[in-house]
Amino acid sequence: RFRLQNKSTHNINNKLQLVMKSRKYTLGYKTVVKTLRSSKGT
Questions:
Q1: Torsion angle, CA of 3/8/10/15, rounded to 10 degrees?
Q2: How far apart are the C-alpha atoms of 23 and 35, rounded to whole Å?
Q3: What's the CA gap between 35 and 32, in Å, rounded?
Q4: 3-state secondary structure 17-41
Q5: What is the pTM of this model?
Q6: For 21-36, how does the pLDDT look when each residue is reduced to its tens digit (9 = 90+)?
């Protein structure tokens, strides 16, 4: 039982890490697009 619980929490942690990575990536992409657009406008 303890083993199963540990495994599930590990999986959740992995998923969370993946989500955080993808979120960081999308945020970075959005900021890059914003800066590109603003530089084009000037």
A1: 170
A2: 18
A3: 5
A4: HHHHHHHHHHHHHHHHHHHHHHHHH
A5: 0.49
A6: 888 888 888 998 898 8
